[in-house]
UniProtKB/TrEMBL annotation:
Origin: domain of life: Bacteria
Gene Ontology MF term list: nucleotide binding; oxidoreductase activity
Domain (GFO/IDH/MocA-like oxidoreductase) ranges: 134-235
Keywords: Oxidoreductase
InterPro entries in the cross-refs: Gfo/Idh/MocA-like_OxRdtase_N, Gfo/Idh/MocA_oxidoreduct, GFO_IDH_MocA-like_dom, NAD(P)-bd_dom_sf
Species: Devosia lucknowensis
Family from the record: Belongs to the Gfo/Idh/MocA family.
A Pfam family annotated for this UniProt entry: GFO_IDH_MocA
Residue span(s) of domain Gfo/Idh/MocA-like oxidoreductase N-terminal: 7-123
Protein name listed in UniProt: Predicted dehydrogenase
Length: 346
């Protein structure tokens, strides 16, 4: 059993408190932290949390609880200072994505976690779904040979679907696309080397910053990913993880994940399209702890057993996904110029 505190009880943090944490039985909550008294009062009133477990500061929680894990579910700009302080206080940390706003900050936190001999994990929850897990397994076993081209499409219409973060910087690349970028690395089992990206803000858009973009990303083994994504697309809605077509020498793997548009809240879908055969719908294995419960369960298992599972999104590993965010933003600012990932990672 891992004892934990949660820091950040706002809109998304409350969702963690209500919908995620109770579903992971190996985690015992011993503290909830937020500087806003209304946030702590809400978890007390709505979730029945003991007021004795609610604190207004991290230092206060550290003095009055024996947690070993800090779950950081705050706004992005607060991730770096809060995670840094948690590591300094000796906590292992699970933090929401993106775990920092710059590569330099990410590297600093990774180094601090190593120096403190603590586990730092980023909640890349899309990895904990049946279709991407199956796709990663198929790629690893060499199904259909080398993959030369992958297309990923994400389509949502924010104004008609309850989106409300109109002033968020880089609402596509930093907040949404990081999920897709992380899945590219996870599924392909490879790292990107260079990319080109263009973004734009359509006329009449409620967004302050660009909600639409396209990118071409080259990976070290030769795979080229064509990525198209938009928060202002009026077409057929895609699942949150997007629609993927992975083209190999002997066939294609087509898959989608997280709320398939044909079956709302329905299952992930993966189909094999062999070059010389009939299409085959693959029966996907159930994931005992899907999505965000998967990330919380994963770090709890690591802390309990010391064994690091395949696909574990450590802070060190997640630097590669953060680099894709920073690289696409940089390329877009340069009008689509090619950016080498080494330039970003340093």
């Amino acid at each position: 059993m891992v004892k934990a505190i949660q820091i950040g009880l706002g809109h998304w943090g409350f969702s963690w408190s209500k919908e995620v944490i109770p579903k992971v039985p190996t985690v015992e909550m011993v503290g909830y932290v937020d500087t806003n008294p209304e946030a702590t009062q809400r978890v007390q009133a709505d979730l029945g949390i003991d007021p004795k477990l609610c604190f207004s500061s991290l230092e206060d929680a550290a003095k009055h609880s024996d947690a070993t894990l800090a779950l950081c579910t705050l706004r992005t700009e607060a991730h770096y200072p809060v995670v840094k302080r948690c590591l300094e206080l000796g906590y292992n940390v699970l933090v929401e994505k993106p775990f920092t706003t710059t590569i330099a900050q990410g590297k600093e936190l990774v180094a601090l976690a190593k120096a403190q001999d603590r586990v730092l994990m980023v909640s890349q929850n899309y990895r904990h779904q049946p279709a991407p897990i199956a796709a990663a397994d198929l790629v690893a076993e060499g199904k259909f040979g080398a993959f030369n081209m992958v297309s990923v499409d994400f389509r949502r219409h924010g104004p008609s679907q309850g989106y409300r973060y109109w002033d968020m910087p880089d609402p596509l690349l930093a907040d949404m696309s990081i999920h897709h970028f992380d899945l590219m690395r996870f599924v392909l089992g490879d790292e990107p080397v260079r990319l080109s990206c263009r973004t734009w803000n359509p006329p009449g858009s409620p967004f302050r910053f660009d909600p639409s973009g396209v990118a071409t990303i080259e990976f070290s083994k030769g795979t080229v990913v064509s990525y198209r994504a938009s928060w202002l697309n009026s077409g057929l809605v895609t699942p949150w993880a997007g629609e993927w077509v992975m083209d190999g020498a002997e066939g294609q793997i087509a898959w989608s994940s997280r709320d398939h548009f044909r079956d709302k809240k329905g299952p992930d879908v993966l189909n094999l399209l062999p070059l010389d055969g009939k299409p085959e719908k693959v029966k996907l294995r159930d994931v005992k702890f899907p999505d965000r419960t998967g990330t919380l369960n994963a770090i709890a298992e690591v802390l309990d057993t010391g064994a690091v599972p395949r696909g574990f999104s450590s802070g060190a590993d997640n630097l590669g996904s953060l680099a894709l965010v920073q690289g696409t933003i940089l390329s877009a600012s340069r009008g689509g110029d090619w950016v080498e990932l080494n330039e970003i990672l340093g």
